[in-house]
UniProtKB/TrEMBL annotation:
It comes from the Bacteria. This is Isoquinoline 1-oxidoreductase, alpha subunit. Residues 1-75 form the 2Fe-2S ferredoxin-type domain. Keywords: 2Fe-2S, Iron, Iron-sulfur, Metal-binding, Oxidoreductase. PANTHER family: BLR6218 PROTEIN (PTHR44379:SF2), OXIDOREDUCTASE WITH IRON-SULFUR SUBUNIT (PTHR44379). One of its GO terms (molecular function) is oxidoreductase activity. The keyword Ubl conjugation does not apply. InterPro entries: 2Fe-2S-bd (IPR002888), 2Fe-2S-bd_dom_sf (IPR036884), 2Fe-2S_ferredoxin-like_sf (IPR036010), 2Fe-2S_ferredoxin-type (IPR001041), 2Fe2S_fd_BS (IPR006058), Beta-grasp_dom_sf (IPR012675), Diverse_Oxidoreductases (IPR051452). CDD domains: fer2. Gene3D superfamilies: 3.10.20.30, [2Fe-2S]-binding domain.
Length: 198
């Protein structure tokens, strides 16, 4: 089967009912997309399918065979994705980083649909789970991107320190968003058959 992933056609040898997440991580080695619950509950596995945030752990290959799939590895190749990642770094959103690939995909999908979402729209769309509790930082970054924050993005990128932000190193944030944080999750890997770092 051929899949369109991050602008490239990729050959995949898997049954049509195989979850997309399994193929991304285990067959293609694209481990920026994370395995959390496997039950469409947490959002860690989120990717974009034709621009719409989609939980890849419950999405069979057959359902995306003719779609454009975007993963965290390529999110910065679009202007919007780059803006989201920059805001995540500016607001130091990630802590452990595990959920942040999915959070960035959810944010990008919302902003693609609605350039200036209201607080209610942000609350409704940003429902991925974060065990580190980065929700206040996510909200600050989203309001920045929506232009509804007192410290809204004016292109200067100087908005650190808003109330509710969770401290974390910029380098850690950048690495986590890019899906390269060295977060060990041996248990997860055993579940998905992956080897090595999460
Ligand atoms: S791993 Fe897909 S929603 Fe949790
Ligand atoms: S689970 Fe650690 S940053 Fe969200």
């Amino acid at each position: 089967m051929k899949l369109q992933i991050n602008g490239k056609e990729m050959d995949v040898e898997a049954e049509g009912d195989t979850p997309l997440l399994w193929v991304l991580r285990d067959d293609l080695g694209m481990t920026g997309t994370k395995y959390g619950c496997g039950l469409a509950q947490c959002g860690a596995c989120s990717v974009l399918v034709d621009g719409v945030v989609t939980r890849s752990c419950v999405t069979p290959l057959d359902a995306v065979a003719s779609s454009a799939i975007t993963t965290i590895e390529a999110i910065e190749e679009t202007d919007l994705g780059k803006r989201v990642v920059d805001a995540w770094v500016r607001h130091q959103v990630p802590q452990c980083g595990y959920c942040q690939s999915g959070q960035v995909m959810a944010a990008t999908s919302l902003l693609k649909e609605t350039a200036a979402p209201t607080d209610d729209e942000i609350r409704a769309a940003m429902i991925n789970l974060c065990r580190c509790g980065t929700y206040n930082a996510i909200k600050a970054a989203m309001k920045d991107l929506a232009g509804t924050s007192e410290t809204a993005d004016n292109g200067q990128g100087l908005h650190l320190g808003s109330a509710g932000m969770v401290a974390g190193g910029v380098a850690v944030a950048a690495a986590a968003v890019a899906g390269t944080a060295a977060v060990r999750s041996k248990g997860r890997n055993e579940d998905t058959g992956s080897e090595g770092d999460a």
